[in-house]
Amino acid sequence: MLVAAAVCPCPPLLVPEVAVGAAPEMDAVRAACTDALGVLAAARPDLLIVVGPAGPGEGGVFPQGGRGSFKGYGVDLDVRLGGGAQGATAERELPSSLAVGAWLLERTGWADAPVEGLGVEETLAPERCAGRGRELGERADRVALLVLGDGSACRTVKAPGYLDERAAPYDAAAARALAAADLPALLSLDADLARTLKSSGRAPWQILAGAAEGTDLDGSLLYEDAPYGVGYMVATWS
Questions:
Q1: What's the CATH code, domain 2-237?
Q2: Residues 87 and 114: beta-carbon distance below 8 Å
Q3: CB under 8 Å, gap of 24 or more: what pairs does 123-126 form?
Q4: Which residues pair with 224 in a beta bridge?
Q5: Whole-number CA gyration radius for the chain
Q6: Nearest 5°: phi and psi at 77?
Q7: Where are the alpha helices (H) located in the chain, listed in sequence order?
Q8: Torsion-angle region of residue 228: left (phi > 0), alpha (psi -120 to 50) or beta?
Q9: 78 Cβ contact partners less than 8 Å away, ≥ 6 residues apart
Q10: What are phi and psi of 183, to 5 degrees?
Q11: Alpha carbons 169 and 11: distance in angstroms, whole number
């Protein structure tokens, strides 16, 4: 069953080598992510599953040791899911979100449990997300999730999706649900609106909601802001 979860954003800008001069602007997010991963370690899971959004054809299961890269962002930096563990060399490259997750785990020196990855296509319907989450919760006696995804990308005129007045209320609703570990509220997030607002977190968050069914986890919101006009949230469930 699910014993703990950490929710983190997944912009490549989290990686200082990618952010370059803007790296200090993300320090508060990085610090919150580090604290969130500490909650996962404290839960002593038997298995950690990293869940993040994936583009068309990029989804699916990724084994421990799967390779990711930030070369597409002009940085010669490679990561492995689960640190230095060796996975099958023929496996596909991690999608960007899982590469960020792998970087977070390497940065915090994760060695507390085996790690797997799951890339989720952002079009996955809420009910299918919940069903997939239930399956993940049954993978081991003590399962932890690192759930990656961003809120809306439409909070300001300079945001990737320009300004949309629905973005701030959408992010506020998501933040409240994550803070309270409110499963119905997470599952009620509208998939079409999330896609319009370019929110990559909707499907991973709803997978978390499915995984948490039948548990009694408490939520805590560690960070919520919109640098660069994109909603970033860090939360823990334990």
A1: 3.40.830.10
A2: no
A3: 123/191, 123/195, 123/203, 124/203, 125/191, 126/187, 126/189, 126/191, 126/206
A4: 233
A5: 16
A6: -140, 125
A7: 16-19, 27-42, 96-107, 126-137, 167-180, 183-187, 191-196, 202-211
A8: left
A9: 67, 68, 69, 70, 71
A10: -65, -50
A11: 21
Find the mean pLDDT for residues 87-97.
76
Kindly write down the DSSP assignment for every residue of 85-104, as one continuous string.
----TTSPPPPHHHHHHHHH
Q: Is the dihedral of CA 205, 143, 238, 86 positive or negative?
A: negative
What are 31's two structure tokens? 């610090």
Instruction: Please check the confidence at residue 227 and state whether its pLDDT lies above 60.
Output: yes
Indicate whether 22 pLDDT > 80. Answer: no
Do residues 50 and 98 touch, judged by C-beta distance below 8 A?
Answer: yes
Contacts of 219 (CB under 8 A, 6+ apart): 178, 179, 180, 181, 182, 235, 236, 237
Residue 121 CB: number of other CB atoms within 10 A?
15
Residue 86: exposed, middle, or buried by beta-carbon count in 10 A (0-12, 13-18, 19+)?
exposed
DSSP assignment of 195-216: HHTT-TTHHHHHHHHHHTTT--
Answering whether pTM is above 0.90, one says yes
* Six token digits for residue 155: 């909070």
CB neighbour class for 32 (10 Å; exposed up to 12, middle 13-18, buried from 19): buried
The answer on pLDDT for 87 being more than 50 is: no
Delimit the domains of the chain by residue range: 2-237
